[in-house]
Design a protein that fits this description.
Residues 183-195 have a biased composition (Polar residues). This is Ty3 transposon capsid-like protein domain-containing protein. Residues 13-152 form the Ty3 transposon capsid-like protein domain. Residues 178-200 are annotated as: Disordered. This protein is an alpha+beta fold and 544 residues long. The chain contains 17 helices and eleven strands. Helix 8 (126-133) crosses helix 9. It is elongated and about 110 Å long.
Length: 544
């Protein structure tokens, strides 16, 4: 076995190999420093001679660390962050090789954490197909990705002898001439530039579909999704492209709206995690239901926000007292700047029965009504947070406070994922998940009409005096002094309206409600030829 020599290239690989070599030869660490000098070749040998002359006493681990810092340019980088941002740009084999090269430098990541990182970096549709298989190990995920890539590459392309010529109108000719694409050339006996007059070869423009992996890579490099130029707020592509857009909820759209403010007008403030308010991230936010006064608000607990913020619509609705402050900017994730000029001091915010006095900056952000950042968290003192179960525990005025976040509901499946699932089997069953209140239907009708016992006596007296207002209607409305009918001109013909076909479940619901209202006497049969559309809105309990 020959010792591995080192010329200054691929330092991480050489360090691993020389470690195995010395361990195999059972050479003590004190003797390795004398032997390793002979393994250095030009141009790295110049460095080792100078290193030995200037470092009288050094241990073997310190020497390997110095070699890594000298010859490995990525030794000072966060390798864990590089692996998390790694995406496939060429083939699956090249992506796997790069992933394994970074993996050799990381020791603090478990295999359960590496599997989703590797899958998220794959291109579509391989990424989604690997996720559906639920690989149990990283090696299984890599083998599955390579097999799927080989299957796609070896798939025969269908070609037909007879092809139908696509019609190209006047508008399409102008669009095709302006779009970049491969120039079609005619090959045959006549190559002087003359055409037959019957067929003219036109540039064929293929639709461009940008995958999630390509979007992530271009966003990391600061490029536009659809052109090679740098992306800035208000960017417009110079070259018009023909892009393909489908009904896939997983294809996130980039928000280029936002107004930038000059740097010399306001102070710059950083709110790095504000871009997560759009709900486009893979992680689930820490949302809590709260109240400002008597108004219910949604509160986001964000450890990435420096200050605490309130949406101006809540401040305007409650007519809060606002104090002008020195203007400053809040930079959000899409590059836009939001201006903050006022603050609501000592705002009474109630979270699950606990009252807090918070200084809320007024910010027209997109997302929840209130954002509680690090300033509010620091005021709580020592806290215990579980961001998986969305819980927060702390002590306030000698009493233990426990806050539980709102867990998100079932995720809606995308059209692309549904197509992949239906292509794997011949028979399918689909179910709709509807939230249902378990307490519905359990209370007796005699007690449902009773008013709450904790009401003030004055309010209870008024409600009991007008009990008939709360009864279910059992007939037509009483006669009025005014006729509210819509009178038409004499001999007016009905409007010719095409019948609108409702889905089955909506049709059944409409018929049920009409039947119930006829039985209660709320409505009656009508012979009028005029009609109006019906709009059904599903309530939280699943009914319409």
């Amino acid at each position: 076995m020959k010792a591995p020599h080192f010329d200054g290239s691929d330092a991480a690989n050489w360090i691993s190999r020389v470690q195995y070599y010395f361990d195999h030869k059972m050479i003590p660490e004190a003797d390795r420093l004398h032997y390793v000098v002979m393994l250095f070749e030009p141009p790295a040998s110049e460095w080792i001679f100078n290193y030995r002359n200037n470092n009288g006493f050094v241990t073997w681990p310190e020497f390997l660390e110095d070699v890594r810092h000298r010859f490995d340019p990525q030794s000072f980088k966060n390798i864990t962050g590089l692996i998390a941002k790694l995406v496939q740009t060429t083939t699956v084999a090249d992506y796997q090789a790069t992933f394994e090269r970074y993996l050799n430098r990381v020791n603090n990541l478990t295999e359960e954490a590496l599997i989703p990182i590797f899958i998220q970096g794959l291109k579509q549709p391989i990424q989604e197909k690997v996720e559906l298989q639920h690989p149990g190990s990283l090696a299984e995920a890599m083998a599955l990705a390579l097999r799927l890539a080989a299957t796609q590459d070896d798939r025969p392309h269908q070609s037909s002898t007879f092809s139908r010529r696509q019609w190209s109108g006047k508008e399409n000719r102008f669009i095709a001439a302006a779009l970049p694409g491969p120039t079609a050339t005619t090959e045959g006996p006549n190559q002087t530039g003359e055409t037959s007059g019957r067929e003219v070869d036109r540039p064929r423009v293929q639709p461009i579909r940008v995958s999630n992996a390509e979007k992530s890579e271009r966003s990391r490099r600061g490029l536009c999704w659809h052109c090679p130029e740098k992306w800035v707020p208000g960017h417009s592509c110079k070259v018009k492209l023909l892009c393909y857009m489908d009904d896939d909820l997983e294809m996130a759209q980039k928000d280029d709206s936002g107004e930038c403010f000059p740097d010399d007008e306001v102070i710059t403030a950083d709110l790095s995690h504000l871009h997560a308010l759009d709900g486009k991230g893979s992680s689930k936010p820490f949302m809590v239901q709260g109240n400002v006064g008597r108004t219910a608000v949604q509160v986001l607990i964000d450890t990435g926000a420096t200050l605490d913020f309130l949406h101006p619509r809540i401040a305007e609705r409650l007519q809060l007292e606002l104090t002008p402050i020195r203007p400053f900017r809040v930079l959000v994730g899409n590059g836009a700047s939001l201006l903050c000029t006022h603050i609501s001091r000592g705002t009474k915010l109630t979270l699950q029965g606990t009252l807090f006095l918070v200084d809320l900056h007024i910010l027209a952000h997109h997302g929840p009504d209130v954002i509680l950042g690090m300033k509010w968290l620091e005021s709580l003192g020592k806290i215990s947070a579980d961001f998986v179960e969305k819980t927060l525990e702390f002590t306030m005025e000698g009493q233990a406070v426990f806050l539980r976040g709102m867990m998100p509901g079932p995720k809606q499946i995308s059209l692309h994922s549904l197509s992949v699932l239906t292509a794997q089997a011949a028979e399918h069953e689909f179910y709709e998940i509807v939230p249902f209140d378990c307490n519905m239907g359990l209370t007796d009708s005699s007690t449902s009409d009773e008013f709450p016992a904790d009401l003030p006596s004055e309010v209870l007296t008024v409600l009991q005096g007008y009990r008939s207002v709360f009864d279910q209607p059992s007939g037509l409305p009483p006669s009025r002094l005014f006729d509210h009918r819509i009178h038409l001109w004499p001999n007016t013909k009905p409007v010719n309206v095409r019948p609108y076909r409702y889905p089955y479940f909506q049709k059944a619901e409409i018929e049920r409600q009409v039947r119930d209202m006829l039985e209660q006497g709320i409505i009656r049969h009508s012979q009028s030829p005029f009609s109006s559309p019906v709009l059904l809105i599903r309530k939280k309990d699943g009914t319409f």
